[in-house]
């Protein structure tokens, strides 16, 4: 079978590999049809992932945003799984032994394994995964099925922000890339008023399609003032950064209301300068977001099934598996042109 293997920093090649054996007990073989590329893939490819995020372990088949079809089901798998089903893959495996696992936070497991990072992922023609990580999804386009993973991060972020169903709270989302867009979608589905902020007006148009209001980034002070005026005198009770850019993180902390929730989703190795008084004077909840848990992934699948038409618009470029090295480099070199690059599903 063919696999796109990242052999070292900045080096990916299409190679032939042996097909997997029949699946063992509790496992299934899937055929990845579409694999989304995201920022963590860029960092892995460039050798920039921190040790806490998994490092960059070569050689590796990347790809953790996966839409696939089940090809064979091993003994002892849960009922309802069968060959031919389209599925999305929960990419994280927890150890079950560390402190986060012991307090029911396996998504932050100290010894986690993520497909495409610690173990081989979706950029190959067949992949063996535990049946517990396979979620049937009723969509026609495998590229949309692959979006269940970024939507799951959005579900986790909105849950961390304590935005409940029926909410009428004001939520500011900084960044209108795929994760920021999905956060806006999930928050709007729960009833929140949402303001999405980004440098690019073209990205903001997509956020408007789910009923979000939008603001073009012009500068720290201007954006903070505008967001606080939009939310009311107290400022927004929830602000979520989906960029990882230090100035956006600072804006999030500065704009959020007293007793509010500032939620960090965007990944970065950057350092951020904050005025400590912003945390103590306003008694903020400053929250981080990692991967989702199993229930949240199931919720993400349902979100995808309800919003297929809108999510299709997130997919800006599609490449065949043979062009995987080109696809990754294109995504990294054209950040203003790219929304979501998908390999496969062409």
Spell out the blueprint of helices and strands:
Blueprint: E1 2-8, E2 11-16, E3 27-37, H1 39-45, E4 60-61, E5 65-73, E6 86-89, E7 92-93, H2 99-102, E8 113-114, E9 127-130, E10 134-136, H3 142-146, H4 148-160, E11 170-174, H5 178-189, E12 193-198, H6 201-208, E13 213-216, H7 220-231, E14 238-241, H8 246-255, E15 261-264, H9 277-282, E16 285-288, H10 294-306, H11 308-312, E17 315-319, H12 324-333, E18 340-344
Parallel strand pairs: 11-12, 11-14, 12-13, 14-15, 15-16, 17-18
Antiparallel strand pairs: 1-2, 1-4, 3-5, 3-9, 3-18, 5-6, 6-10, 7-8
Helix pairs in contact: 4-5, 4-10, 7-8
* Quaternary organization: single chain
CATH superfamily of the largest domain: Medium-chain alcohol dehydrogenases, catalytic domain
- Overall mean pLDDT stands at 95
Listing every helix as H and every strand as E from the N terminus to the C terminus, the arrangement reads: EEEHEEEEHEEEHHEHEHEHEHEHEHHEHE
Q: Could you please describe the fold and organization of this structure?
A:
This protein is α/β, with parallel strands linked by helices and 346 residues long. The protein folds into 2 domains: 2-147 and 314-344, Quinone Oxidoreductase, Chain A, domain 1; 154-288, Rossmann fold (3-Layer(aba) Sandwich). Helices cover 30% and strands 25% of the residues. The chain is built from 12 helices and 18 strands. It has helices spanning 39-45, 99-102, 142-146, 148-160, 178-189, 201-208, 220-231, 246-255, 277-282, 294-306, 308-312, 324-333, and strands spanning 2-8, 11-16, 27-37, 60-61, 65-73, 86-89, 92-93, 113-114, 127-130, 134-136, 170-174, 193-198, 213-216, 238-241, 261-264, 285-288, 315-319, 340-344. Strands 3, 5, 6, 9, 10, 17 and 18 form a 7-stranded mixed β-sheet that branches. The longest helix is centred in the middle third of the chain and has 13 residues, at 148-160. The two termini are 18 Å apart.
